[in-house]
Structure formats: C-alpha cells, structure tokens
Write a structure and sequence with these properties.
Blueprint: H1 3-20, E1 22-23, E2 26-27, H2 30-45, H3 50-58, H4 71-76, H5 83-86, H6 88-96, H7 105-110, H8 132-150, H9 155-163, H10 172-181, H11 184-189, H12 193-206, H13 217-229, H14 238-252, H15 257-269, H16 279-282, H17 290-296, H18 299-308, H19 317-320, H20 343-358, H21 369-378, H22 386-395
Antiparallel strand pairs: 1-2
Helix pairs in contact: 2-3, 2-8, 2-10, 2-12, 3-8, 14-15, 14-20, 14-22, 20-21
The structure holds fe (ii) ion (4 copies).
One fe (ii) ion binds near residues 61, 71 and 113.
C-alpha cells in the first residue's frame, strides 16, 4: 500500500471522528483528544497495536451517533446510567465491524467503559480481563471528560484529579505511563484548536495502515457510506443506491470516466453531514417543527465542511453538498440557481429524490418507479433540472429497486 492511500484512509477516519464531534457550529475535538493521548500511551505499552488503538480511539463513541445529546455531555452531566447511553459501546462495536480493516478495534470500543474495579459496562469486566487497548482508551477518555468538566487548570491539578480514579476506573500501570507522556507542552497542545490540528497532522504521518488490503478509494468510501447509513434503519443502503442511480443518470448524460468516478464518490458521501443530526429528528414520523427542519437543513453544509477538510475529497465537496439545491433557487444550503449548481450536484438531487420516493420511510408509504417518475417530471424546472430528469427517465427505467 502506498503512503498516499494510507493517508487517505487515516485522514478520512480522523475527519469522520471530528464530524461525530461537531456541535452546532463548533468542533468539540473529544475523540481527537482521546486518540492523541492514547497514541503515545500505546506506543509505550503495546507498540504493535498502537495504530489500531488509535483508530479505535478516534471512533470510540461512534455508537453514540444519532443520540439527542452528545454522549460527552451526558458523561459530563453525570447521567451515564441512561440505558440508551449504556448501549453505545455495543452499537459502536457493531458499526465498526462494517469496516473490515478496523474489526480489531471493535473489542476496544466494546470495552471502553469497563472499569478496572469491575463496575463498568457493558460486561462488568475486571482488571486485565479488559483489553489493553480499551484500558488505554478509557484512561484517555477519563482525561478528556475531566478536562471538559473542570476547564483549563494547571497540569498538576489535572494529574491529581486523574490519580483519584486509579484502582477504581484505571490501573496503576496505565496511570504511570500517562504521567510520562502528559508533559506540560503536550497538555497545552491538547487544549488549543491549532495545537490539536498540528498534533493530529503529525500522528497521521506516523500511524501504520490498518491493513494491506486497503488499497483503493472506492472501498474506503463505500465503508464510510455504510457507516453513515448505519445511523438509522430507514437509510440502510441509501448512499449506495444514490451513487448507483446517479451513475445511471450520468452515463445517460455522457459523463466521462473521471466525472463518473467523482459522481460515485459524491453519491456515496452526500449525506455525510447527517452524522450530526439527531436520530429522533431523522426518524420522526409526521411533520417537523421549524426548528427541527432547520437542523436537518444544515446537513449539506456539514457534508461540504467535512469533505473540504480532506485533500482527496476537495473536488467533490460542493457536488455532494449540492444535492438539496433546486434549480429555481429555493433549495439549500446556498439557494443556488440553475447552472450555479454543479451539474453533478443536480444529478445527485434527482438520484437522492428518486431513492427517497421509492424506499420505505417513516413519513410516507413506499411508492413505485412509475410514481417516482411522475413526481420527478412534475417538479421539473422547479426542483429538478429538466435535462437531468430526462436522463433519469431513460437511465433508471430498467434499474432494479433494492
Ligand atoms: Fe463512550
Ligand atoms: Fe468518549
Ligand atoms: Fe441529504
Ligand atoms: Fe440523501
């Protein structure tokens, strides 16, 4: 595997992790801090697993996606008993198995809330029954939960607070290594956005690839799409289908190979920004309040923001984020008019709508292809581009609805 491909994968996972921590208009960096602190601890305790522990740490709270309040807040506010929250390690482990290259991280994620004295969850494991990777992630998680609760305090005070959890939450051994690696400089670096970005850049250069097999953009992108769709039952397979429908329309319109490849990646990742939208809103049957709709409407901007952060996805950010624009200028996030919307964005709008109409959603009965075509035609020139709809009627007429 080339260095570039590894950077793509690790960069993507780091961006996904940051996306999971996005709140309103700010980055929380919780998972980044946990991963950045886990890395030097693992390098000392179990260097051969440091890479996979790092990935596990980046995604340790992925099972909390879609929860109304971010898991971190619940932990900070002391309501960790909620049943829903206690399920996030299992959910996270199940989601991470979707990416075969990361399956070894599943155990660390499953056990990251186990406690040294056996009073953690989900299994109540004790001492070294808990995998080392999970112990390390738990210690780094504890650090960040305390940091977020107490704010900026001198390192000495922080270490004292963590020390009070030795033997209950974490082991003496892990604490000893944490003492070694958490220097004043590193501690300060973890507390500034710029410091975190720099530290992440450095680690990403060093972290080993999770697997030799991970050798193309498409399989990595597909794995991510599956993670996005895992958020709730109604979107299972949605991103794959939108990519497929878009390709059918694109080939009908005579796009070249390079454009088709872009279109596929944009289709797979178009709803990346939905990762930040609570499940209760996405799954809500019946009408949404103005406020809830406002939250949903932010997701294409989220997609643009996340994809823009990754070099190899810069070129598809505005295509993917253009799938809710309308040719009459009434769409979002920018209200672009006709050709101002990238052509591939207009294609995605039709592919996305076609799947939304023909798949089972909580707010509507499933409709067939003919009905979908009628709806597309009816909204031609207002919501959808006329030429794209014409290509869709041709390109999708023989497609099997999955
Ligand atoms: Fe957690
Ligand atoms: Fe966490
Ligand atoms: Fe969308
Ligand atoms: Fe979508």
């Amino acid at each position: 595997m080339s260095r570039k491909e590894n950077c793509l994968f690790s960069g993507l996972i780091a961006s996904l992790s940051l996306a999971l921590d996005l709140e309103e208009n700010r980055k929380l960096y919780h998972a980044w801090r946990v991963a950045l602190l886990s890395w030097p601890i693992s390098k000392i305790i179990c260097p051969r697993e440091a890479g996979i522990i790092f990935y596990g740490a980046l995604l340790h709270d992925i099972g909390a996606i879609g929860m109304d309040d971010h898991i971190v807040h619940k932990a900070v506010h002391g309501t960790t008993d909620a049943i829903e929250i206690r399920r996030h390690p299992q959910r996270g482990a199940a989601i991470i198995k979707i990416i075969p290259e990361l399956k070894h991280a599943a155990r660390y994620i499953l056990e990251h809330h186990e406690m040294w004295n056996g009073s953690g969850y989900p299994k109540g494991l004790k001492g070294n029954e808990i995998s080392l990777g999970a112990q390390i992630i738990a210690a780094a998680d504890l650090f960040d939960v305390i940091l977020r609760r107490v704010g900026k305090i001198p390192l000495e005070g922080m270490l004292n607070k963590i020390r009070s959890y030795v033997s209950s939450y974490i082991s003496e051994e892990i604490f000893g290594v944490l003492l070694q690696v958490l220097t004043t400089d590193f501690y300060n670096q973890l507390q500034s956005d710029q410091g975190l970005e720099e530290a992440m850049k450095e680690v990403l250069k060093k972290v080993p690839p999770p697997s030799e097999k991970l050798n193309d953009t498409t399989s990595t992108t597909s794995a991510l799409a599956a993670v996005i769709d895992a958020k709730h039952q109604y979107t299972a397979g949605h991103s794959e289908r939108v990519a497929l429908y878009a390709l059918n329309i694109g080939s009908e319109m005579g796009l070249n190979l390079n454009e088709m490849e872009k279109l596929q990646r944009a289709g797979l990742l178009h709803d990346l920004g939905k990762i930040g939208v609570p499940r209760s809103i996405l799954d809500k049957p019946g009408g949404l309040t103005k406020e809830e709709f406002g939250i949903i409407k932010k997701h294409p901007q989220g997609t643009i923001d996340i994809l823009s952060m990754i070099d190899v996805f810069n070129d598809i950010a505005y295509i993917a984020g253009g799938h809710h624009e309308r040719v009459d200028g009434q769409g979002y996030p920018y209200g672009l008019y006709r050709d101002e919307i990238p052509l591939m964005g207009r294609i995605l709008a039709v592919a996305d709508a076609f799947d939304a109409i023909t798949s089972n959603r909580p707010y509507q009965p499933t409709r067939n292809k003919e009905e979908a075509f009628r709806i597309l035609q009816k909204n031609c020139g207002s919501q959808f581009d006329k030429k794209v709809v014409e290509a869709a009627l041709e390109g999708l007429k023989d497609v099997d609805l999955i």
